[in-house]
Amino acid sequence: MKPFYGRKKLYETEKRMKYRKVPQYSALAKIYGHLMRSIDYNDWAKYLLEIAAELGTENCKVLELAAGTGELARLLSNKFTDYVAIDSSYEMLSIASAPVKLVCCDMTSLPFKSKFNFIFSTFDSINYLIEKEKLRMLFAEVERCLEASGIFTFDVSLELNSIKNAKYLNRRGKYKKIKYIQKSYYDIIERIHYNNFEITMEDGTKYYEEHRQKICSIEEYLELIDTTGLYVVNCFDAFTFNDVKKDSERAQFILKKKPC
User: d(Cα 194, Cα 197) in Å, to the nearest integer?
Assistant: First the structure.
């Protein structure tokens, strides 16, 4: 599938009218585990533990942003003494079974007064912050909530990932009598990756979710972070400890607070 050039692609009007548009990860929550069944959460958890290794884990306070259904929290909860997982979707958190503190909130407006040693976000959740001002708000909140010697790490999806892999996310299927259609495309002009879902519940109710992700360059992230109270310690080719490259599809940022 080639990147989509020009204005945003629209579904046929008569088809869209059959579906009720709902917030991201509300109806999708019911089939999220099925859609993510190929993800190796164990390897992801190990990678995060390696990033956090210098902090130790015994008295480490952890904050996971955009935790979704809590699969990573479930795997990591026994490694840390204090673990808080947040997500803006109540429907996603309601499925989580991890023995951690769950808080429904926006990651750009954190309700915490206490500080954390390790803050992280995974699976390109940061890409959902479409506007740069939202990114600034996130970094300001992380800076406020991060201990002086703490670590903030997050991954992002880069343009090559959208160009190469958008076509593989066009799919349809059925899970527990719930039918779904996913349509994925990349607007290379606006640099927005769209993942749109048409979901038909067992009772025939139809929902539509539009997911948009902003695809920024590494340079844009670096320039923005430089204006905050955080600085980049490393930027890796995701899931490795090799420096990010021009042909990387995903990047892993490691940030700390600037010295006072």
Answer: 10
